[in-house]
């Protein structure tokens, strides 16, 4: 990623390139250039254009230009709303998001995305977590549950994703409420799957050395694909960090997850992890 940064007050130019390859011969190549024009103190015009290519042994290559146009409106020092319209994989895409600081302690955020996504990308949604070196304490946002359908390996999905988050900060304690609605339209199958999520989390620093994050999430697939049972997914996460010395931290975490389906085919998992992080 290369950017002009804050050198010019009227604009910012960005070029970003991405290459991803897995051991199953999936490859994604993307290069996108963007221009942000600060037309006034409150409004910024946004333009992006680039090229994207995805290859996988199970499908014909998916490739083509990607572009978007939109704008961002600053509503205060820490508040904004943004809308973009564009094209991806040969069809219309939308992005709308907002971030409002209602009080110094209360922040609300939300976004809506509507775009085409090859199903292979949904299998790799969590791969970026492998490269997140700063996420030792943070708990990643849980991905929507679901078992990939082998008959839909060559599918392209119309993915509509709405998320709302409210965060309240008091002293050394932070509370979050998260609501998501996901709608996936399988274009070849002409079927739609809908999932609703509710989540809550608590992030607290107990002392100068000890802090933790706890989250609870509930998913319900209330409109499953034809022939698939509806399901409920319950997830509890706990992550902690303890400062052993100036450059050393002890980290740990625990995950409990239960998936219950309408055909009584339930499954659960427990994951316990510990580690040491040292800076040199």
How widely separated are the two ends? Answer: 26 Å
Which structural class do the helices and strands define?
mainly beta
Helix content: under 10%
What's the count of strands? 15
Radius of gyration from the alpha-carbon trace, in angstroms: 21 Å
Strand order of the largest sheet: 1-2-3-4-5-6-7-8-9-10-11-12-13-14-15
Number of helices: 1
Please give a quick description of this structure.
The chain has 280 residues and is mostly beta strands. Helix content is 2%, strand content 67%.
What does this 3D model show about the protein?
Strand 14 (248-261) and strand 15 (267-278) form a beta hairpin. Strands 1-2-3-4-5-6-7-8-9-10-11-12-13-14-15 form a 15-stranded antiparallel β-sheet. It has 280 residues and is mostly beta strands. It has one helix and 15 strands, in the order E-E-E-E-E-E-E-E-H-E-E-E-E-E-E-E. It has one helix at residues 119-123, and strands at residues 2-3, 11-21, 27-38, 43-56, 59-76, 79-88, 91-101, 106-118, 156-170, 173-186, 191-205, 210-223, 231-243, 248-261, 267-278.
């Amino acid at each position: 990623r290369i950017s002009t940064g804050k050198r010019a007050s009227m604009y910012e130019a960005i070029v970003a390139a991405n290459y991803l390859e897995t051991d199953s011969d999936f490859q994604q190549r993307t290069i996108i250039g963007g221009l942000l024009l600060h037309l006034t103190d409150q409004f910024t015009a946004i333009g992006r254009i680039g090229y994207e290519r995805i290859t996988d042994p199970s499908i014909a290559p998916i490739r083509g230009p990607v572009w978007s146009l939109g704008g961002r409106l600053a509503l205060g020092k820490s508040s904004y709303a943004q809308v973009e319209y564009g094209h991806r994989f040969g069809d219309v895409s939308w992005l709308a998001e907002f971030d409002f600081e209602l009080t110094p302690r209360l922040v609300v955020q939300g976004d809506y995305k509507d775009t085409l996504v090859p199903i292979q990308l949904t299998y790799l949604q969590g791969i970026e977590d492998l490269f997140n070196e700063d996420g030792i304490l943070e708990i990643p946002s849980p991905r929507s549950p679901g078992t990939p359908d082998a008959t839909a390996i060559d599918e392209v999905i119309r993915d509509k994703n709405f998320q709302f988050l409210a965060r309240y900060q008091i002293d050394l304690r932070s509370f979050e409420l998260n609501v998501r609605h996901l709608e996936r339209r399988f274009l070849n199958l002409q079927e739609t799957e809908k999932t609703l999520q509710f989540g809550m989390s608590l992030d607290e620093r107990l002392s100068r050395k000890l802090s933790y994050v706890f989250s609870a999430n509930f998913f319900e697939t209330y409109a499953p694909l034809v022939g698939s049972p509806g399901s409920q997914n319950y997830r509890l996460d706990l992550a902690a960090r303890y400062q052993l010395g100036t450059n050393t931290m002890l980290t740990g975490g625990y995950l409990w997850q239960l998936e219950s389906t309408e055909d009584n085919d339930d499954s659960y998992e427990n994951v316990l992890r510990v580690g040491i992080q040292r800076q040199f």
